[in-house]
Amino acid sequence: MSIKEKINKIIEVVAADQQALLDSLSEKEKKEVGSVKRWTFKDVLVHSAFWWNVFLERLQAASQGKEVKKMSEDTNSINDGLLEEHKNDSWDIVLKENKRVRQEVLKWLDKLSEEDLTDTEKYEWMRGRALYHQFLGDCWHDEWHYTRYLAEHNRLDEGVAMQENLVAQLKILPEWEYIAIYNLACFYSVSGMREKAISTLKKALKMNPEMKEWSKEDPDFENIRKDPEYLKIYEE
User: If phi over 0 gives left and psi between -120 and 50 gives alpha, with beta otherwise, what is residue 204?
Assistant: First the structure.
């Protein structure tokens, strides 16, 4: 299976998860107006479309030999401003834009070659990473927000199942498996699943010890930072 085929597979998994969640929403949930502290699913869709658009704009600029736009590192301010700007948008408008962006992503993926996707030097703005990592990163980013939405709306079991399924699917990309497992540990942690968070983090760090230093600072583990079992990880 080519890298392009693998990315398409992951995109299909995430798209199916999005559709399942959309199908489960009540009319009330679709009309809700969110806040910075509690996003609605409409906010999640706006957020997803924005960051995919950033990626698409970079691809377009690179293909035309233009300078790729740099984003502010203060993503929290960007995200908060985005929510405020679009909080009163209608459900239909938000859904339409989300679908348009997804179609554009698939069009771009279709015309990119294996070399485009795997060359670590072709796109300067990727900072030495192959382009396919951005596709996978944005897919994971979407899934994170879907599952956090479920967790925050009393549907944690569904969110856990969704996260765990994506990790299983990512085994087709062995070089991404440890990233997926690490991110799963993050999800367990922020969802209050202490034991699973610690055991999964141990597994991820065993697969890639280089992540140990970052994990000490990762805010997703803040609520287990003082746990004796967590601290033991760094004594080994």
Answer: alpha
Under 8 Å CB-to-CB from 219, ≥6 apart: which residues?
Answer: none
192 conformational bin, left if phi > 0, alpha if psi -120 to 50, beta if neither: left
Q: Which domains does the chain have, with CATH numbers?
A: 3-133 (1.20.120.450)
Distance CA 208, CA 210 (A): 5
Residue 98: other Cβ atoms inside 10 A: 21
Interatomic CA distance for residues 145 and 52, integer angstroms: 14
**Residues near 79 by beta carbon (within 8 Å), at least 6 away in sequence:** 47
CB atoms within 10 A of CB 28: 7
Residue 173's nearest CA partner among 207, 133, 213 is 133
Phi-psi region of 13 (alpha: psi -120 to 50; beta: other; left: phi over 0): alpha
DSSP state of 3: H
Query: Could you read off the pLDDT tens digit of each residue along the chain, which spans 236 residues?
Result: 899 999 999 999 999 999 999 999 999 999 899 888 889 999 999 999 999 999 999 999 998 988 888 877 889 899 999 999 998 999 999 999 999 999 999 999 999 999 999 999 999 889 899 999 999 999 999 999 999 999 999 999 999 999 999 999 999 998 898 999 999 999 999 999 999 999 999 999 999 999 999 999 999 999 999 999 999 998 86
What's the token pair of residue 144? Answer: 């994170």
